[in-house]
Design a protein that fits this description.
467 residues; 8-stranded mixed β-sheet; 31% helix; globular; 5-stranded parallel β-sheet; FAD/NAD(P)-binding domain; Polyamine Oxidase, Chain A, domain 2; single chain
């Protein structure tokens, strides 16, 4: 069986690694970009600063993934380990995340509104399952927390009406509310900051997150991995790909990790597959600020921060130089911030011009007191990622699942963050394991648990055990 892999992000590289590991040598991997890693990649600018394509952190739901990471980067010197310090900038102050477990840090009026909302849902729970994400928010957090944080923050992240989004994707991604725990934290003035699967995480010491994927690609046969190869057509009947440079390749099975809507647009010939879908996604602007000096004391130990309010365009900011001293050329002279801004690709509410995006982001850092003045900025870096988040809309699965099956019937397996379009299994470890499990399935070595059963792979396991 000849297997072609399209896309050199975590999913495509995971598939190639697994094929190599199993001794199945008839494969090729094609990536249209100039480097490996896809949306999980990194780049170094002309001034020597490293930037990730988003605020990535490494934590795992799988033992297989952890073992692979240990092989790729030296366990003793290749990683920097961190205890998560995530915060929310709200009401002109930093409050520890998750907010629902730290509402005592809010002003009294806001605190009472949040507590009143929690009491209301405790006394009068929703009688029927929520119809959409917005209804789920209020049913689980109450009106106070919903209006204070959950609604404005999620509108910033998703750039999409919350009433049009499903809520079944949530799983471990949102801290649950428990009235007793909230009251306990108020009475005993207890701060809760350890919730979540990424309470402990690690980061590559050198080269940003992209160094992981460059190391993985370097461990694969050079004559089977190709950069700068952009596919322009896929013919499912003839099982061939044609590339922009005029070359072609044939396959028995195609594993595609490029965005599903882009894949459908490449398909030619007599096919029952649609050319368009109702699937929705955001675009992401990533702005890096290279800064002179050292982080102010208030940011010296912070990892990332959430920004729900309208005084800034970004929804999340990472103190990127805190992840590794090597993310800046000289940690005694510089530090850095990584800012993320979502864009609705349907309405294009954000101007695409980099200068305007950067200026708006800088003004936001001034408004939220991340920096004191513009003179501290050494330079700015910007990337627009046309695909940021696959939006889990109401009705997504009813369209997505039959489409994935139709593609499989024609020898094409669409996997990965945007290949499978399932945000709930769209982290780096999920994406890599989708590639690994896809190969396992093709070679009769196992089933695809991550793709079809995210509630299993994302569920807490006894004693922190991983699959």
């Amino acid at each position: 069986m000849r297997i072609i892999i399209l896309g050199g992000g975590p999913c495509g590289l995971g598939a190639a690694w697994r094929l190599q590991e199993l001794g199945h040598m008839d494969w090729a991997l094609y990536e249209q970009g100039r480097d490996w890693g896809g949306l999980a990649g990194s780049e170094q600018d002309s001034e020597g600063f490293w930037w990730d394509y988003g605020g990535h952190v490494l934590f795992a739901h799988y033992r297989y993934f952890e073992r692979l990471m240990a092989k790729l980067l030296d366990e003793s010197d290749g990683w920097v380990s961190h205890r998560r310090e995530s915060w929310i900038w709200i009401r002109n102050r930093f409050v520890a995340y998750p907010l629902q477990r730290n509402i005592r840090q809010l002003p009294r009026e806001a605190l009472w509104q949040c507590l009143q909302g929690l009491l209301e849902i405790h006394n009068t729970p929703l009688a029927a399952p929520p119809r959409h994400f917005d209804e789920w928010i209020e049913a689980n957090f109450g009106r106070g927390l919903a209006d204070c944080f959950m609604r404005p923050y999620n509108l910033k992240v998703w750039a999409h009406p919350l009433e049009e989004m499903d809520w079944n994707w949530i799983g471990e991604r949102v801290a649950p509310t428990d009235l007793a725990s909230v009251l306990q934290s108020l009475v005993f003035e207890k701060e809760e900051r350890t919730w979540g699967p990424n309470a402990q995480f690690r980061f590559p010491r050198i080269g940003g997150t992209g160094s992981i994927w460059r190391a993985l690609a370097a461990s694969l046969p050079e004559n089977q991995c190709f950069l700068g190869k952009r596919a322009v057509t896929v013919d499912p009947a003839k099982k061939t790909l044609r590339f922009e440079d005029g070359s072609t390749d044939g396959y028995d099975r195609l594993i595609s990790s490029i965005p599903l809507d882009q894949l459908l647009a490449l398909i030619e010939g007599d096919s029952s597959l649609p050319r368009r879908t109702g699937l929705t996604h955001t675009a992401t602007h990533v702005v890096g600020l290279a800064l002179n000096g050292n982080p102010p004391e208030e940011l010296a130990d912070k990892c990332w921060m959430y920004f729900p309010e309208s005084d800034c365009p970004f929804y999340r900011v990472t103190v990127f130089s805190n992840y590794s001293r090597n993310n800046v050329p000289d940690a005694d002279r510089f530090w850095s911030l990584l800012l993320e801004i979502s864009e609705d690709t349907k309405t294009a509410v954000t101007d695409h011009q980099p200068e305007k995006v950067i200026d708006s982001a800088i003004q936001g850092t001034l408004n939220t007191h991340l920096i004191a003045d513009r003179s501290s900025i050494h330079h700015a870096w910007h990337r627009r990622l046309p695909y940021g988040y696959p939006v889990p809309t109401v009705g997504r699965d009813a369209e997505l699942f039959p489409l994935l099956r139709k593609l499989e019937n024609q020898g094409i397996l669409s996997r990965g963050r945007f290949g499978a379009w399932r945000y709930e299994v769209g982290n780096m470890d999920h994406s890599l394991m989708q590639g690994v499990e896809c190969v396992n399935s093709l070679l009769d070595m196992g089933e695809e648990l991550s793709l079809w059963y995210p509630e299993i792979v994302n569920a807490p396991h006894p004693s922190g055990a991983k699959r």
